[in-house]
Records
---
Amino acid sequence: MTAVNRVVVVGYGMAGARLARELRARARDLRIIVFGAERYPAYNRVLLSSVLAGKADEGDIALAEHASRVELRTGVAVTAIDPADRTVTTDDGTVTRYDALVLATGSRAWIPPVDGLDPAALPEGVAVFRTLEDCRRILRAAEGARRAVVLGGGLLGLEAARGLALRGLRVEVLHAMGHLMERQLDPGASRVLTRTLCGLGVSVRLNALTEAVLCDQGRVRAVRLAGGEVVEADLLVVACGVRPETALAEAAGLKVDRGVVVDDQLRTCDPAIYAIGDCAEHDGTVYGLVAPAWEQARVVADVITGADPRARYAGSRVVTRLKATGVDLAAMGDTQVEEDEEHEVLQFVDPTRGTYKKVIIRDDRLVGAILLGENATVGTVTQLFDRSAPVPVDRRALLFADLRGQAARTVESPVQIPDRTTICQCNSVTKSAITKSWLAGARSVEDVIKDTRATTGCGGCRDTVEGIVEWLAASDPQTTGSCA
């Protein structure tokens, strides 16, 4: 492999910022140039719903990812790539040479082909929900609004809907499919989630195909559904999914399918160009989540710097968490499976309490789960899924925290978790790192988070981190600090 002295990163979102940090940690003398089209420093997109709900300020979601001695150019968009000359051109006319180029261009909000929705010029009172600027636009529109409609009952749509309800708006979700979050949930979980959301001030209409957005003097006033029904709205949030941002790659002649196609080292068809995060397609999959993006960043940093030239990305086991106040939901793996000769399926449903639990087991391994509502076992289930570890003999321990078989205790009890086990996949924080943080003086979950950055990615490991800190507090006779 030719020596790499200069790396250009296109994109300063969660993937690009992490990559810059990983590169600098491995190579002190490497020149790293990062271009970010947004004018803001890198921030945690996962927490935008908290800003929308008023539970966090913009400063609270800033990423502590800045690596020293990185040439960072925010508010500058790359407009062209020349693979032959190994250069990129930006919108201010600058041409920059690279030895290795990494595309971390992310994704863009998809706007459905609906009359009245022009992606180039959305009407006043209409916004997508993808970036910090989108969040600001929604909040400005919400100031004078009373009734909001959200198009899309996926992850982002539900988080936006709940955030707006917390600001006092009447909110209705219009979802074209037959149940909510159809990629992560089965119909039964959707029914319970719909009931829970209704109790939180968010009404849901399924099989609702939007035909047109109706405006008055350039401002949204209503949505018309197929069949003619009109739903009033003075704020419309479009959350119908995202599409990988691949225009640069395609124009440069790189192979593009659903995303920028990459191999196990995240290389494109040009060996000097890599792609990670939302824009990358690996083995036919575009993940669109932060944990896989950060795993990919580690592999690319190893390969480019030579820290581990044989590093490979083998795909990710994804856990999805819905971050909406009053809703506790985790989903992972294949959740649509029903009982058959190969699969065991355990379920518990209590709609009045907003509880839906389902785990799917094959060959004594957890291959899928939905935990909605009372999910005290989410730490156990997530660890089993991440590690592909054997499930308890008493399967009920996966659903109910007070029914613990020996195998469940083995997973849940921190004393039994090996020190090398990765607790926070997003930030590669091991149990050992959490223990060392405690021994160095961290005396609360928040102290440990600040020290290790555990939980600051997707947040799915929070329960496990809290359990380890509680165990450390109970095991250390010289401390009595709070673990909250």
---
Amino acid sequence: MQDQSPSKIKRNTDSAIEDGLARLTPEKITETINQVLQKETGPRLKAYVETCMRCGLCSDACSYFLSNDRNPEFSPAAKVKQTIWEMIAKKGKVSKDFMRRAVHIAHIECNVCRRCSMYCPFGIDIAYMMLLVRRICHKLEITPQYIQDTVNSHSVTMNQMWVKEDEWIDTLQWQEEDAREEFDNLRIPLDKHGADIMYSVIAPEPKFQAGLIYQAATIMHAAGINWTMPSGPGWDNSNMAMFTGDSEISGRIARTFYETAAKLNVKRIVMGECGHAFRSIYDVGNRWISWAMPPFEIVHALEFYHELLTQGRITIGEKYKKKVTLHDPCNVSRGRGLHDMAREVVRMTCDDFVDMVPNREHNYCCGAGGGVVNCGPPYKTERMVNNRVKAEQLAATGAQVLIAPCHNCHSGLEDIVHHYKLDMEVKFLGDIIFETMEKKIYRPGE
């Protein structure tokens, strides 16, 4: 397996960060840091900072630390020491060079996956503190360019890929026509008022992976689901703003999504296979608009597939034959506890399943989540070095197919497979179900 020494890592930056730093004054840096720390935090941050004993038990939980030959600089506690602790200790009086490093640590060297919190004896949420650093960077306007562009697109068009309304509808019509090769009378219903389910996807699907909408429509039709998709803004369930520290835009994106579902008067929302989008709609976006929980039942694709299979609404003809392994997305496994349900779905659809070690909520992050992959090409080579432990974990399974039920995970794992020359194909769980299901319509009682 191809390797690269961590000592040779070149820590890149990009024009948005450098231009932003050039505009900053010492006074602006200090004022912004203190505003966030004094006005936007409280006992939670104080408890974390004062409780941490610098014991280092979080270190072995971090894939960055392990991938970089246990370099102490990559320990979660060290990342906090190099960023938020210094800001507190110096009362915000830090330099531009300090902030350049802080941007890199918070955005490129931490996936905010929260694996480290499981190994901290006090349960300190280091991801929360890294997100605070990102919040400060956002307010200083030194967020990496590519992820900021994604947020800008979502702010203007209500989808992260700048997909125009007519392009969105054209894509759905195109996939509906293609899906009629499976079922003559299949429809992708738009704006169907009172449907049981609103199905939502992230913008990369109509932009780059429209076939996934085809597959979802086929599954919905075969299962006899009363469903719909929105024709206008609010169909994209992603939310990169929650990873840039832009809480205001994050809340606006979530509100638009909820309002779209409310206008259609649907009973529940089924999300596509995206972990961060699920987290945004299920447990983050609602809080930025002061709701304890979302106003609708939110169901991730994993739960939905499990429901359809166990209820017999779709049936498997012949199980998938190739040897498969399963990646646990942080936001639906560690964050929502769907890891065992995912394995039940895999075993119902696949003949030969081997688990990774470690697995379930202890699985290593894909290295792309938390907005890291969205920071773009300037950081890809460094990201691959930081993902070495994940590549080793994948190679040890001997699997031919890697199932990744999350878009960012899928993209990040494809990069790892390519970079480390692993003989492995990456698939969504929906790909497996579509390939193995019987193409017949569910009729109760038959």
---
Amino acid sequence: MRVMKTDLLVIGAGSGGLSVAAGAAQMGASVVLLERGEMGGDCLNYGCVPSKALIASAARASSMAHAAPFGVASVTPQVDYAAAQTHVAETIARIEPMDSQERFEGFGVTVIREHGRFISPTEVQAGAHVISARRIVLATGSSPFVPPIPGLSDVPYLTNETLWQLREQPEHLVIIGGGPIGLEMAQAHRRLGSRVTVIEAQKALGREDPEMAAIVLEELRAEGVEILEETQAQRIRGSDGAIAVETVNGAVQGSHLLVAVGRKANIEGLGLKKAGIETTKAGIKVDEGLRTTNRRVYAIGDAAGGPQFTHVAGYHGGLIVRNALFGLPIKVKPRILPRATYTAPELAQVGLTEAEARLEHGDALEVVRLPYQHNDRAIAQRQTTGLLKVMVVKGRPVGASIAGAQAGELIGLWALAIGSKLKMSAIAGMVVPYPTIAELNKRVAGTYFSPRLFENETVKRIVRLVQRWLP
């Protein structure tokens, strides 16, 4: 058994773990990184990257089928599903070198491709290695949650980890789960020519602002995605190519089944009890500074039981580097963390939703709304379905909800505004190129000030008075 000592031990080579390892090593700390699976974690290999690549293929097919309004003949696209999956694989391959073992070893990180488990509060065993570390970071990510539906284990089914191995296009894809993953894949497969049915036990996009979710769901249904809400899957039966999902409202039959009901933190087999680390139903118990109940150990990203997004893990990683290397105090700020669903139209949120803001701020809340139909670029691109909504308290945004084209791009400005405590006047005063979708952000801020300027009798009296004195 080889004994190693290091400043920082990182378990998990997903986005969060890689951020910590690279940052710490390049600033002079000794770092050991453990990863038993694929470098790059779920996002690169099974999640964000492959899903967006397939969405891109589907978008090309959709644009061909709906080109006539632009003066270009619409055609029925000839979809090669296997080739679309090859595009997915090539996309992963192009990004892989950035997350490779060789690259991180170049930073000075010692990479060990083994599973790690605690054998004491400060020691982890990984294969033939025992690593003693001053600080340990658990960045083990998450994996698909497979619900205990009777019959599910007896039929072939897909998850986001196995979908990318599929080369035969589903004739009728049945998806259990109406969250972001389920709906992104539903629209992508519908645009590629599959029939798609989504089964959701509660409300589709249930964690989002209902008004914004409705905009997205209406568009998906208009494209032919069947979405069954408040429909509980009770039993599953069938065989390869013929799957039936029995629900409270009858049976749904399809050729393939995708289970997309959420994810669970990867915390089993880590020996957490030996390290004195407590867990919750969502993941590892952490404080506002991401420390576990073992003060030498942090948990970040999906493992910490919070929002399951790659950018959140990266944000956590940056905080850990500050604290573990420099001893600087850190505190997670959940309200600056945006999220996005990459359907068409996209759906994005940061800070408080309207309902949350009304509950917290009551009559002090002002809600500013701007439909996409007033944006010239959206008109030119025939993407006028959408709405931007900003929640404002005492002149500062406390939340923003966007449903529409490029919502994921637009939301970044509001994350900055909330995180930096900018006033709406700062947004209204910025200059953006014309014509762009980004003008929506500036215009909604202008909408906030419009009644204060144009419907204010005091302002009008001052203007008339000043005009009398100006030469």
---
Amino acid sequence: MTADISACREALAHLDIDDNPQTVRQKSRDFYWYSPILKEQLDDVTADLVIAPRSVEEVVEILAACWKHDVPVTTRGAGTGNYGQAMPLSGGVVLHMKHMNEILEIGDDYFVAQGGTVIEHIERSLRAVGKEIRLFPSTMGSATIAGFIAGGSSGVGAIRWGGLRNPANIRRLRLVTMEETPQIIDLVGASDISKAAHAYGVNGVIVEVEMPADPATDWVDVIIGVDTFENSCRLALEIGDDDTVCKRMLSNFEAPIPFNYFRRHRPYLEESEAVVAVTVSKETLDRLVEVVEGFDGATLRLRYDQLEEGVKLPAAFELAWNHTTLRALRVDPTITYLQMMIPRPVMFEKLAEVKERFGDELLLHFEFTRFDGVVSPVGIPIVRHTSNERLEEIIQILELELGLPVFNPHRITLEEGGMKKTNPHQLAFKKQADPKGLLNPGKMIAWKDPDWSPSPGKTYLFAE
């Protein structure tokens, strides 16, 4: 297939089109530059034009025209993803969802929003009527709800509700297929929703989302200093397992991450201490204080409800998740990161092995979430990057020698980044919803190689 960009542009000229090379390049980017490997691979990636639909009908029109003229389409929201998920590897059209940003309905225990709605706007609108969103990324101030679902897997709230894979956390997705006559489809139920959730938009454009809304809670951020990182893990597990402490976020950071990179919090921190950050309900704050005071080696360093008048600090979630990496990058541009599982039963054994093997080359940062109801750590360590070859070597050591699964943020495809295998259900749905393979091409290895399996140290490039 050869894309006919000119004919497509002419057919859609009455819509909101941007073909200025400078702004098209800007809107063809996400936060891929977190990865030095992806930065080298993707720096020259750009679309041919950006189209911003104002309605579902315009989405249908755009996809039909692009299908007719064999033009690839990559959907994006705010572009806050870190893996190149929203970057148009084959050029074509970036479908920018900025205009589709309305909250359509707020019910007793749910909300419905268009895909391009910024999550912070959803949270504020819910709180105005005594409710709150269940899960959100640390980039909630700019991230869109469909972008979160298509590119993310977990976030703030996961210590309470589990991640996005929990069937209770997404009720319905409405998407548009890319065919000669695009269809509008509602996906309901875990098996159907999983076809489009965390699929990078390869098998449909998410135009509407229905998710749970919970009664609003008065949350308080708390920062706790702990003498060692190992003890901070023990404290985090104690807090996580304590059902009398209602939590929205539970994170910990090895020294000197907090002191070096949480610059505005530095007056409250000790350089040698690890930190546990908790977002706790005001109602159970006293219980949290009781737990901290009873833990040897822990000191409550900061309660946001006791900040001095006029002092404003970033929310605790803006220190955690991948904001940790972002804050480190602002201080030291040679920093990068990894994402990996730390099985709870062997958590302390593996923690010791990692530190013995890598020392300060890997500084540990865990997010505590629930997997099937069990509080478990997800590792998002900061890596002192010296070369791409060494970064690849670190990943191989973690996976093959230490037995720690790495969700590789230095890969651009669905399979290499986390699944480690092809997903037959997502592939089958893509064949149905995108028969020409024009939606976000290059992100699903299975489209060209359904029998793919990973090879240590080998990168699958979209050009292969």
